Every structure is written in structure tokens, then in C-alpha cells.
Amino acid sequence: MEKNSAIARALNFFDDGSFFALLADWVALDTGNPVDNGTTQMHQYLKEKITPFLEDMDFDCRMVENPLEPFAPFLIGRRIEDESLPSILIYGHGDTVPPMDGGWQEGLVPLVLTRRGNRWYGRGCADNKGQHAINLVALNCAISERKKLGYNVIILIEMGEESGSPGLHELCKREKKYLEADLLIASDGPRIDPDVITIFGGSRAVFNFDCSITLRKGGHHSGNWGGLLANPGIILSHALASMVDKNGKILIDGLRPESIPFSIRKAIEKLTVRGEKGPAIDSWWGEPGLSAAMKVYGWNTLEVLAFTCGTPDRPVNAIPPKAWARCHIRFTADSNPKKFLPAIRAHLDHHGFSMVEITEVPNNYGLATRMEPDNPFVRLATTSFEETLGEKVVFLPNLGGTLPNDVFANILGMPTLWVPHSYSGCNQHAVNEHILESVTREGLQLMTGLFWDLAEKIPVRA
Predict the structure, then answer these.
(1) Is the pLDDT of residue 360 over 60?
(2) Which CATH superfamily hosts domain 3-203+369-457?
(3) Domains 3-203+369-457 and 205-360 share a fold
(4) What's residue 164's pLDDT?
(5) 294 contacts 396 by C-beta, under 8 angstroms
(6) How many CB atoms lie within 10 A of CB 261?
(7) Could you tell me which of 372, 414, 374 has the C-alpha nearest to residue 260?
(8) What pLDDT does residue 36 have?
(9) Cα–Cα distance between 337 and 255 in angstroms, integer?
(10) Per-residue pLDDT at 462 exceeds 60
(11) Average per-residue pLDDT in the chain?
(12) How many CA atoms lie less than 13 Å away from 66 in the CB half-sphere?
């Protein structure tokens, strides 16, 4: 048995078109409309696409209904060689954002996987069907060559990640006995650069809240009342400007990281963020004195996502009665989100904005997580990847975006390795979503090699 044989099997599966055909079949099933009659497709994806693929590898699979949302079921698959062996948990999600028909490039259909040069276009191919397809095919190749892995594998696929993973925390608490493992391996999000093999150990989290002002019941003629009635839009604009300055620096101490461990700062400072194949980076924006990498991986941000005052679609000459803004904070593991609203309230009151109402948005979930660079599993994966492709690997303590990683790190209590097979310009939540053929082919090699190396090097339980 040789690692190279398993990798060759994976490459053959890719090069003969089998991987493209598999992913095309998975993309063709619309799993982007969970509320509008999409419940059937969500179950169908797990039952007809994922389950047969896992059962061919001798997994025992069962569908689990979501304790909170019926449109977002779960699939748990278990391949147990021996209960005394170490176990890994592989996670992915089969739901997508809506197809967004009509806005794609000419000739592209969201649910038809289409190859154009180095790009494969299709809804969900990057987020997340293509990424967990890579991992499951790689696992299949390792099993086909080895027969016995020397460790157990548990699979968890959810269908509600794009809706905030409702029920995932509750499921993992309820099914903890069946999901316990020594390591999580998952793939989502982007590489730091398309050509750079990337591992990250956690993610920032997000805290959404609304700021609003209601001064009166209706609008009043600006000619008759201008200068006499306070304008809620102007007041709210100033309130927001007191929280974050014109260059994006957060002005409330309670919304900034409390501390950054030296090991984390050192790991992040090694990174270079160029923003390739995306919008140009505004180097003047954000916390002064921080590198681009530190701003997105090691610091918090306060954003205004939406702002309404009056009737934007049909403005009239009237002083509006109210104004509203949706804001959010992306925060690192150095921050306690329970302190955010009290800090905002105290700040606004101190600056004369007691009329601003603050409301937490119900869809907040999870805590920020990260992993230390010297974790043994980080070293194992890094060594495996560098041996497989002979290229340098970059490790991020956490992703800049948000994933439900706290479920695995905190509730299930395991180290977490995320290996992204996409890049930041993939348009995963927009029209023209795509993956890169070159990165996908690399991903198959990397993950096949990792599953093989885990068989040789995963720590044995005491």
C-alpha cells in the first residue's frame, strides 16, 4: 500500500471526468430555496446524493430531523472500524443560496455545471457542494487503496448553514455520543490566495444588531417644519459616526479585542493579504497600525449593512419620523459578545444619543474560535500537504468570515482543521459562482494524502 497509489486514484477520478460528473449531479439539485417548497430537495440531497455515496464506503447513515427547522435536516454517517480507535469527524453543508436565475453570464445556467477555462460555474460548486465532494471522494480513494484506515470516520452534513445553521448546536448536544471524535476536518471558505495551500483553525463570529430612532408617527412637510423638527436620519448618522470613525476605526473600547496572544499575533503577522481577483484593498481603512492580515484575521470590525430613512425609492419633501440601521460586528476569540450591547448603550448615552434604540438581531449564533499554530494536528496536516505537493502551506489561526465552528470546538470539544478548496473571488453568494479547476484538482490530492497520513500518524487513544 502506497500513498502515491491513492493519490493517483484520485487524479484519475478527476482527469477522466468522473469528478465533474459527480459534482454536476449534485449541483443540478436546487437546494437554495429552503422555505419556498424546498424542503423536499433538502431531504432529497441527503437521501439520494450523499447517502448512496457514503454507503458505498460502508457507512451506516441516518437522516435526523432538525429540532428547530423542518426545512434543514441533517445526515449522520458512521464508519466504525473499532470503537477503541481514534475518530475523525467530517462536516459539510448541502444547502446553497438561491440560484438567482437570469443574472449569470450569457450561456450559464445556475444548476448546470459548466466548464470555461479554469473555472467551473454552478450554484453551490464552491459553497459547499464542491468542497465536501472533494473531501468525500478523497476519503473514498484512501479507503479503496487501504481497505482499513486504522481510524473511524463520522460524517455530518447539514442543510441549513446558509440560514445560520439553525438546530446545529441543539443537534450536537443531543447526538454528542455519536459525533464525538478526536479531530474535525472540514472545508469551506476561501484560501488566503488561490495559489496558496491554506489551513485555518477557527473563525471570527458575527453579532448583528439594529439601531433605530422613532421621533413621531408620520412625516411632516419640510417647508413648514424644517428647522423645528429633529431629523432622525441625521441624528442616527451622527450616532453611528460616534461609534466608528470616517476611516473605519472602532471608537468603543468594549467592541475591540481585549487582547491578542503573542503566538496568534506572530502567526498572523507572517501572512500577506493581497486581495487578488477581488476588489482593491483600501489600505487606509480600519484600525491604524495593523497589517491587512491582522485587520481581517486578528481584529474586530463594525459595519453598517443597511440604512433607511424616509422612503428611499420615492423621496418626498418631508421630515421623516424614523430612521433605522442594521449593523454588525465581526469579532475574534478575544472578545465577549455579551459585553457588546451594554458597551454600545453606555457609549450612546454618554454622547447624548439616548433616543437611539438598540436591538439584538435573533439570528446571532456561536462564538469565535481559533487554534494555536503549534497544535499537533496542525503540524500533521501541514507536513502531509507539503509532502504531497511540495509547496509551502499557510496556517490561519482563524478565518475572517464566520462558520459554525464553535459547535465542534466547544460543544463537541475537538480540535478543528478547515482546508478551503476555493478562493475569495468565487462569487459564492452571487451570480457566476465558480470553483477553479486547478485548485479542485490540488484539493483532491491534498485530502487523499491527508486521509492516508492520518492512518499512519493519527495519535492513538490512551
Answers:
(1) yes
(2) Zn peptidases (3.40.630.10)
(3) no
(4) 87
(5) no
(6) 14
(7) 372
(8) 59
(9) 8
(10) no
(11) 95
(12) 22
In contact, 120 and 20? CB cutoff 8 Å: yes
What pLDDT digit, counting tens, does each position of 207-247 carry? Answer: 999 999 999 999 999 999 999 999 999 999 999 999 999 99
Q: What is the DSSP letter of 338?
A: G
Instruction: Report yes or no: 182 and 412 within 8 Å, Cβ to Cβ.
Output: no
Confirm if 166 and 72 have CB atoms less than 8 A apart.
Answer: yes
Residue 138 C-beta-side C-alpha neighbours within 13 Å: 30
User: What percent of the chain shows pLDDT beyond 70?
Assistant: 97
Residue closest to 57 by CA, chosen among 128, 152, 185, 127: 152
- The class level of CATH for 205-360 reads alpha beta
Helix (H) or strand (E) holding 179: helix 176-179
Instruction: Name residues whose C-beta falls within 8 Å of residue 338's C-beta, 6 or more positions apart in sequence.
Output: none
Distances in Å between the Cα of 444 and the Cα atoms of 10, 87, 181, 256 are: 6, 21, 23, 39
Delimit the domains of the chain by residue range: 3-203+369-457, 205-360
Read off the pLDDT of residues 84-132 as tens digits, 9 standing for 90 and up. Answer: 999 999 999 999 999 999 899 999 999 999 999 999 999 999 999 999 9
C-alpha cell at 73: 435536516
Half-sphere exposure of 407 (CA within 13 A, CB side): 26
